[in-house]
Design a protein that fits this description.
This protein is α/β, with parallel strands linked by helices. The chain has 9 helices and 14 strands. It is globular and about 45 Å long.
Length: 277
């Protein structure tokens, strides 16, 4: 089977230390957590940043501090920044950290209800963001929360000058207001992607209770997996995880036990269409 890429979503924009006391917040904490996750098998760190008081931010200087700290602690780690930020973040602030030229960034493919809020990604802003990825030479990971967003991405590819194959898509399943992480939903997303964008690779992030069901299906279906405190704070039901690395270690162990090798840094870069280091 193809090597699997594990992505560590170590902080997020919504999780708080009230719910998860081990949440890494400062650049130094994020660097230590990224190194632990790399040692456990992760090859990508999905990065949101926080101020020292824990509040989410898209402040350029804070992103730079975290990126620099992670690169120093674990140079082999692929750094993928979030351009989503916290729900309601102004679009220009969401886009700004691409100027730091991380390895990757997220490109959200549509608008959806997000709990009690609305995560707005206007069609014109999706195009503007895609153009910014090209301007800064950053590779996008396209975030899709339901199957219609795959159609949006396929249409942008057909237009020829907005996004280009090969693409890597992340199925984010289980957000209140989006598609759930039921196995039949993930199977449909895989099938639909193969029909519409057959050259794309994919990963899944199962939110909350959907973390393990989606991960197990991805393991045997050729997909890649994101996990971490952004998506799920528990190791078992009602038992808060000790660290992001604990969640990564479990998936890495199961992958190895079923004969799915963990991607090396070089293999991960090749699969994600990143330049070799």
């Amino acid at each position: 089977m193809e090597p699997i890429i594990l992505t560590a979503a170590i902080t997020g924009a919504e999780t708080t230390r009230k719910d998860q006391p081990n949440l890494p917040i400062t650049p130094q904490e994020q660097a230590l957590e990224a190194k632990s996750c790399y040692d456990a098998g992760a090859r990508v760190v999905h990065l949101h940043v926080r101020e020292d008081d824990g509040s989410p931010t898209q402040r350029l200087e804070r992103f730079k501090d975290s990126i620099d700290a992670i690169r120093k602690a674990v140079p082999e780690m692929i750094i993928q920044i979030s351009t989503g930020g916290a729900v309601g973040e102004p679009f220009e602030k969401r886009l700004a950290p691409l100027a730091l030229k991380p390895d990757m960034g997220t490109l959200n493919a549509g608008t959806l209800n997000f709990g009690s809020e609305i995560f707005i990604n206007h069609p014109s802003d999706i195009i503007r963001l895609a153009e910014a990825f090209k301007e800064y030479g950053v590779v996008p990971e396209v975030e899709v929360y339901e199957s219609g967003m795959i159609d949006v991405v396929a249409k942008l590819i057909k237009q020829g000058n907005i996004v280009h194959s090969p693409l890597h898509l992340q199925f984010v399943l289980g957000v209140p207001g989006g598609m759930s992480g039921k196995p039949k939903n993930l199977l449909y997303m895989i099938e639909h992607l193969k029909e519409e964008i057959p050259t794309a690779t994919w990963a899944v992030a199962g939110i909350g209770r959907w973390h393990l069901p989606t991960a197990m299906l991805a393991l045997v279906s050729g997909g890649h997996i994101r996990c971490g405190f952004e998506d799920n704070i528990f190791y078992h039901k009602g038992i808060v995880a000790d660290s992001n690395a604990q969640l990564i270690s479990r998936i890495a162990r199961i992958a190895q036990e079923i004969g799915r090798p963990l991607a090396t840094p070089q293999q991960a870069r090749a699969i994600l269409a990143l330049p070799a280091k």
